[in-house]
């Protein structure tokens, strides 16, 4: 069952990634990507994976040590739970990148491959996007964020 949940985790996020990559200008995509609820499906799986292992999870995460973490990640439920958490956070990062890309007017042909790269290697995709954002953003952005103008 754990193997099935591991596989299912990513597939639950594919529709959201697909909208941001293949339908970036559709108004529904922005509405959907603006909701933090897109992370709920993998987080529900995470909850199911850890529900029966809360004492082990608490012991590992409350005072992490390399050996204990390695043992935790060596279990099928532990690795699957961390995978679900990573998938959820990657999706939230990707959705933020998508929204920021739209705000900055970054062309979808730039954002699409960048989001795809973020699916595979999120730290690198996120870092590249931060550089793009830094280059495209305006210095007086704080005013526009507060006033929405």
Relevant terms:
mainly alpha
Question: If you had to describe this structure to a student in words, what would you say it looks like?
Answer:
The chain has 149 residues and is mainly α. It has one domain. Helices cover 80% and strands 0% of the residues. It has helices at 2-11, 14-22, 27-33, 40-50, 54-62, 66-74, 76-104, 108-120, 122-136, 141-147. It starts with a helix and ends with a helix. The model has no long low-confidence stretch (mean pLDDT 91).
Topology order in helix (H) and strand (E) letters:
HHHHHHHHHH
Largest sheet: none
Helix/strand/pairing category? mainly alpha
Amount of helix: over 70%
Which regions are unreliable across 5 or more consecutive residues at pLDDT < 50?
Answer: none
How many domains? The number is 1
Cα end-to-end separation: 50 Å
**Percentage beta strand:** under 5%
Mean pLDDT: 91
Note the total helix count. 10
- Taking all Cα atoms into account, the compactness measure Rg is 18 Å
Number of strands: 0
The gross shape turns out to be elongated
Short description:
This protein has one domain (2-147). Helices cover 80% and strands 0% of the residues.
